Amino acid sequence: MHFKYLILVFLVLSFGKSSDEATLTWDASRKLTWNDFKATPDLESGAAALTASGITFGYSIKTEDQRIIDVETTVEAHFYPNKSWYVRDKGDKHILKHEQLHFDITELYARKFREQLKSLPIHRAIKKQMDKMHSAINEALNETQRRYDAESNHSLNREVQKQWEDTINEALNALDQFKSH
Questions:
Q1: Disulfide engineering: 90 pairs with which of 3, 48, 79, 115, CB 3.0-4.6 Å?
Q2: What is the pLDDT of residue 16?
Q3: 149 neighbors 9 (Cβ within 8 angstroms)
Q4: What is the DSSP string of 82-149?
Q5: 16/58 Cα distance (integer angstroms)
Q6: Which tens digit of pLDDT belongs to each residue from 95-130?
Q7: Which residue(s) pair with 49 in the sheet?
Q8: Exposed/middle/buried for 96, CB within 10 Å: 0-12, 13-18, 19+?
Q9: Are 155 and 7 in contact (CB under 8 A)?
């Protein structure tokens, strides 16, 4: 296998986020640039870049007479600049598009999670159910990120890379009503 353009993805799948950690929230009007990748590259990894992204999730529950009467949730797709890096002489537009799609996949799963939460009825065990749903969406996200890298051969298979771009863009459009605001 040719490692010159090997891409790795590192998912930070967390419940909430540290207030001192720099993040970029996914935004359809703003694409990643190489300036967003601020960590020191791991030159021994053989990778051209590493994207750290993940879904943050939080909720607040309103109760009355020990009954849950309302639930508000926050789900966001984040990119972590201080954990993301690239090797300057390997970072080109093609690889940056590959990295952007990792972030787009994170947003897709954030949308899927928002869709699931919207239809969740309020009940006594809702906290436990939301935490279970959060774990399940993270597992699905992780699997999709791994499959994307494997099938596209970390962007080296340009035809499959393009197929993934088309598929993810179609899926994002289908869930447009659940996009990050």
A1: 48
A2: 40
A3: yes
A4: GG-EE-TTT--HHHHHHHHHHHHHHHHHHHHHHHHHHTPPP-TTHHHHHHHHHHHHHHHHHHHHHHHH
A5: 6
A6: 999 999 999 999 999 999 999 999 999 999 999 999
A7: 7, 86
A8: buried
A9: yes
> Residue 160 belongs to what H/E stretch?
helix 158-174
Beta carbons within 10 angstroms of residue 68's beta carbon: 15
**Do residues 11 and 141 make contact, with C-beta atoms less than 8 angstroms apart?**
yes
Residues 6 or more apart whose Cβ sits within 8 Å of residue 53: 9, 11, 12, 77, 78, 79, 80, 84, 102, 103, 106
In this predicted structure, the answer to whether residue 152 has a pLDDT above a threshold of 50 is yes
pLDDT score, position 20: 59
Query: What are phi and psi for residue 27, nearest 5 degrees?
Result: -145, 125
Where do we find the tokens 């639930």?
71
Residue 78's pLDDT is 97
* 55 phi/psi in degrees, rounded to 5: -100, 125
The span from the CA of 18 to the CA of 22, in Å, is 9
Weakest-pLDDT range from 23-27, 49-53, 63-67, 108-112: 63-67
Q: What is the mean pLDDT of residues 41-61?
A: 93
Beta bridge partners of 74: 58
